[in-house]
Design brief:
single chain, 717 residues, alpha+beta, 6-stranded mixed sheet
């Protein structure tokens, strides 16, 4: 966007200079030149690199500044110094083999003792969105109020000479052309005082219509919303609005003939609202003008003359030259860079080569990366620039590759460095499985080389008397992880003197038939215990969830033909359920991106997860971020408390699409399922702690199928 701002500002400045030829060149041509500024602002990229582009004039400093701002956590207190850990290209990274490769960024390394850093990209993006949204809302409300006022007071006029609908509107300061899809002319009572004045007013607004000025007014408002922070865009909007009226006057005088220009000018003076400047935020054409603008318009009408050919040719040539300098981008040194190994990267044997772009790709070069001849991913030219250059971007890609290809931890891989001789075997197995899962996080860029259980003890046991006396044991575990890339560990983690990450967790177990069953409130992990009083409350919730799940397991239903619903598991929903092994959506990429959604599920949810009172008037029901229902309606045939709907959940978000593409997958929104889509029935009962959710994939089943499934469902009474 920085390049767009620079080039568009230069273009607008050049157009301001070209406006000085007014009087020698047609006003319509000057007005039409503002189209180039609008087009440049609507293009988020430059057409082609060019040696004549103004983007080449900035040298390396703007690129370095843009890269610094783009870096998460950028700290501007020390100029351009990098803080280790903020950017892989300025850190010492430890590879799984234990060796260290020092990455030189060419910048001074400062110690990692900054107390506060700002995520500048996110902060600037939030400010831009807030500003654009506020201005868009203001414009929408202002224009909506104007249109409502016009419709309430308007009266249709039948004028034989008018080529479009004409209305009389009370309270309107000047005649205007309003409306985008059904434009119409609105006249004031003053415009109807004489027939000639009426003709001149209608002619003026019809000329605006032929020029498409009602569309330009809307586009002007849209660009102001997007570039609300850019004074050059506001200047362009103001000047183009003035040139719009000059061009309209010129066309009107040309149609009337020079002999009637005085008559037209007189009508213009009578109708213009002199006390009100032209509105930049109105999607309508009005005759409002400031004193200077009125003086200029009347002077141009009085001195009406044809364009001077030499001046016209000069303006056209200069406009083309300026467009060539501003619609093109800076020549990118990466395009001519030799293929080979990025300098100073974390990985030995990492190489890159320019790859063939997919069909329709128009966003610069694409580079494929190989580690010892194996493809590990690809990056676009734009990503490389945004991330600070080839070395930094290649390091990031390499770390992501290591993360998704790291060997999976198993409970057998966890070393036990504490006395567990008195710990029941079923407790130890469950805790080791937990620690193994915590040793590898698909969403961070580091994994554990080693994990050790350093402490496991029985904290307390609680007897829950209702419904039957039940014993709940609480165990606390401590473990430590040795990260493969310590510099990437979050600053909020506790780290010992040897660089190992220290963590702890609390586990609850219900004693049943001589064994222990892992328990938790609903299916919420982890368990939080802040003081001794929390144990009793947590134990009660664990027993309640366990009993509710046990009752839920006794539900019965007829599975759809050909679908294996498997065994009841407490891991589904809030209290357990059945989920088919067959998947219906997702499954793209590798690692954390290989998300799938099942073909069918029957799950027990907590009753407070679903309430008919929360269904909106149009049948929407929001479960949470990226998860919602639509077209919710009562399923009367299933009895009271039954509802049927379409249920959706986003499996992938915007950042995931970039990651999938970098892994080498060409994202196709027409054929790939990035969102789950189900026919779903909710079954509720008064006073029941459970709401049953029955879902069948919409790409495999019909609405009738899920209604049949719900009809076969038997509550576990």
């Amino acid at each position: 966007m920085l390049e767009t701002l620079v080039t568009s500002s230069v273009l607008i400045a050049a157009l301001c200079v070209l406006r000085l030829t007014r009087g020698r060149v047609s006003a319509r041509l000057i007005y039409a030149l503002w189209l180039t500024a609008a087009l440049r602002l609507m293009l988020p990229f430059s057409l082609v690199p060019s040696p004549v582009s103004v983007a080449n004039l900035g040298g390396a400093l703007p690129e370095r500044l843009a890269a610094e701002i783009s870096r998460p956590g950028a700290d501007f207190s020390e100029g351009f110094d990098y803080v280790p850990g903020d950017n892989p290209s300025s850190a010492e990274a430890t590879r799984p083999g234990g060796a260290q490769d020092t990455v030189s960024s060419g910048a001074q390394i400062t110690p990692p003792d900054a107390e506060f850093t700002v995520d500048w990209p996110r902060a600037l993006r939030a400010a831009w969105i807030c500003g654009a949204g506020a201005l868009a809302a203001f414009i929408a409300l202002r224009n909506a109020a104007m249109y409502r006022a016009l419709k309430r007071s308007r009266m249709r006029l039948e004028l034989d000479f008018a080529a479009m609908p004409v209305y009389l509107a009370d309270g309107l300061p000047t005649p205007c052309l309003a409306g985008v899809f059904r434009p119409a002319i609105y006249l004031t009572p003053a415009a109807l005082e004489t027939p000639e004045r009426t003709r001149m007013a209608v002619l003026h607004e019809e000329t605006h219509f032929r020029h498409g000025d009602h569309i330009w007014a809307l586009l002007r408002c849209a660009l102001l919303c997007v570039y609300w922070f850019d004074p050059f865009v506001w200047l362009a909007a103001y000047l183009s609005r003035r040139d719009c009226e000059l061009a309209c006057d010129e066309s009107c005088v040309k149609r009337l003939g020079p002999e009637r220009r005085a008559e037209y000018g007189g009508a213009l003076i009578d109708l213009i609202d002199r006390g009100r400047r032209a509105g930049l935020l109105e999607a309508a054409t009005t005759m409002s003008s400031g004193k200077r603008a009125i003086k200029e318009r009347i002077g141009r009408i009085a001195r009406f003359s044809r364009s001077h050919i030499p001046a016209l040719a000069a303006v056209v040539v200069l406009a083309l030259a300026v467009s060539a300098c501003t619609f093109t981008g800076a020549e990118d040194a990466t395009e001519s860079a030799p293929e080979g190994s990025p300098a100073g990267t974390l990985a030995d044997g990492l190489e890159y080569a320019e790859a063939e772009a997919p069909e329709g790709w128009d966003s610069g070069a694409i580079y494929a990366f190989y580690l010892d001849g194996e493809f590990i991913g690809r990056l676009s030219e734009g990503y490389i620039e945004d991330y600070g250059g080839m070395d930094a971007a290649a390091d990031r890609l390499y770390l992501e590759y290591l993360n998704r290809t790291a060997p999976e931890f198993s409970p057998e891989d966890v070393e036990i460095d504490c006395d567990v001789s008195y710990i029941p075997q079923d407790v130890l197995e469950h805790v080791l499985e937990w620690v193994a899962g915590a040793s590898q996080d698909d969403w961070t860029l580091w994994n554990a080389l080693e994990s050790e259980l350093t402490g496991l003890s029985l904290e307390t046991n609680v007897i829950v008397p209702i419904p039957d006396p039940t014993i709940v044991e609480f165990y606390s575990a401590e473990y430590r992880l040795t990260p493969d890339r310590p510099e990437l560990v979050d600053e909020g983690c506790t780290i010992d003197d040897e660089g190992r990450v220290l963590q702890d967790a609390v586990f609850a177990f219900i004693l049943e038939d001589g064994g222990r069953v892992p328990a938790r409130p609903r299916n919420d992990w982890p368990i939080f215990i802040e003081d001794e009083s929390d144990y009793a409350e947590c134990a009660s919730l664990c027993v309640q969830s366990y009993e509710t799940g046990a009752e839920a397991s006794r539900a019965e239903f007829d599975a759809p033909e050909g679908v294996d619903m498997g065994e009841f598991s407490r891991d589904y929903g809030d209290y357990g359920g059945w989920v088919s092994a067959e998947t219906a959506f997702g499954g793209y990429g590798s690692g954390a991106l290989a998300v799938t959604a099942p073909a069918a599920s029957v799950t027990a949810l907590a009753a407070d997860k679903f309430s008919p009172e929360k269904i909106s008037d149009n049948g929407d029901y929001i479960f949470g971020n990226h998860h919602w229902c639509s077209d919710m309606q009562s399923a009367a045939g299933l009895g009271e408390g039954a509802y049927v709907c379409r249920e959706y959940a986003d499996l992938y978000v915007g950042a995931d699409f970039d990651a999938l593409w970098q892994q080498g997958l060409d994202v196709d929104f027409e054929t790939m399922s990035f969102q789950s889509d189900y026919h779903t029935v909710f079954l509720t009962r008064p006073e029941s702690p459970v709401v049953w959710k029955l879902s069948l994939a919409a790409n495999m089943f019909t609405r009738e199928d899920v209604l049949a499934l719900a009809e076969s469902f038997v509550w576990p009474n």
